[in-house]
Amino acid sequence: MTEVDRLMDFIDLKAQQARIRNDIDRRIAAVLDHGLYIMGPELVELESLLADYVGSRHVIGVSSGTDSLLMALMALEIGPGDEVITVPYTWISTAEVIGLVGATPVFVDIDPVIWNMDPELVRASITEKTKAIMPVGIYGQTSDMAAINRIAKEMGDIPVIEDAAQSFGATHHGKRSGGLATIGSTSFFPSKPLGGYGDGGAIFTDDDELAERMRWIRLHGQEKRDHHPVLGINGRLDSIQAAVVIAKMAIFDEEIVMRQRVAERYSEVLANAGVELPKVAEGNTSVYAQYTILSENRDQIQAVLSQAEIPSVKYYSVPLHLQPVFSNLGHREGDFPMTEKIASLGLSLPMSPYVSWEDQERLGAAISRL
C-alpha cells in the first residue's frame, strides 16, 4: 500500500487526541489522585458545563446514551399498554428502550430531505395510548422540533424526548440540540461528535420534578441513603469519562466548524459524482456526525472505495420495522417507503474534523472512476 493509497480513518480520533492529550492526561491523573472514580467532582463540573452550553436548567450525566433514553421513559412512568412514537430509521437503541419498559414503539416515516421524523405523519399516529414522541437527530441535525413540539402540545401536552446522540452541538432556530424538548438525551460514545473514551451520556430538562426522578433512577432509584422511592438502574457516569468529555468540550465548537468545512469540501468534490448529497433544513445547523450520500450504485461505490483503502458504512440498511425483534408489530416491507429508500441508498463517508483535503480529493477521484 503506497502513501497515496494509505488507509483512511473512518473517524479520526487520534488527531483529536494529539491536540488535547496533555489536558486529558492531567484530568485523568486528578481522578486517580482523588480516587472518586464514579460520580466524582468531574461529573459536577461536566454537568455545569453542559447546562451552560445547552441552556438547560438540569443536566444529569449518565452511563450511556441508551440509558439516558431509558431513564427518560422511566421518569415519565411509561410502561405496558403505552405507545411511544419514533422512527424506524435510527440505531436500535431508540426503539429498544421503548420495548424494555414494556411500551410499544409506533413508527412513523422520515421526511425526504433530512431523513428525520416527518412531523406531518406524527399527528395521525397519536392515540389515547401515546405517552411520548421520540424524534432522532440523524447524521448531525435535528428533526423539525418546532413542528413536533407544536403538535405534541396541541394533542394534549404529550412529552417529547429528543434523541440528540448524533445532533448534539447542532442548532434548531438558534437553540441547541438537547434542549429542544421536554427531555433531551445525548451520547458520549467515542464516535459521536462529543464523545468520551467509553460509554457515557447525558440527560437535559427544564422540569424540576423530572430531573429529580431521573437523578434517583440513575442511582438505583435512591432518593437518599437506604431510601428508594422508585425503581432505578445503575446509570452512573464514571469520573474518568466525565474528565475526558470536559477536555473535549474545550475544542468542541471549533471542531463543529471544522466538521462543517469538511462537509462543504465533500459537497465540492462530489458535486459531479452523480450522487445525492446531504441537505440541511432551513433553520438548522448540522454537526455532521456522518456525511451520508445516496446512490443507486451504492455497492459499486463502496467496492471502489474499499479498493482505494477508503472505509465507508451502510448505516441502518435494515430498518427497525424489518428487524426480527420487532416482528410482533406486524410491519412488512413497503410500510415506510422513505425509510426503506434511504436505508437502501445511503452510504456514509469518513467524517471527523480532521479529514484532510487530500483524502477527500482521493475519495472523489475513486468515485469518479465508476
Q: Provide the CATH top-level class of the largest domain.
A: Alpha Beta
Question: How far from one another are the termini?
Answer: 21 Å
CA-atom Rg in angstroms: 21 Å
Put simply, the count of helices is 12
Number of strands: 11
- How many structural domains does the protein architecture include? 2
- What fraction strand? 5-15%
Question: Tell me about the biggest sheet?
Answer: 4 strands, mixed
Question: Which word captures the global form?
Answer: globular
- Give me the strand/helix succession: HHEHEHEHEHEEEEEHHHEHHEH
Poorly predicted runs of 5 or more residues = 1-5
User: Which fold does the CATH topology of the largest domain refer to?
Assistant: Aspartate Aminotransferase, domain 2
How much helix, percentage-wise, in residues? 25-40%
Structure description:
By secondary structure, the chain is of the alpha/beta class. It contains twelve helices and eleven strands.
Short description:
This protein has 370 residues and is of the alpha/beta class.
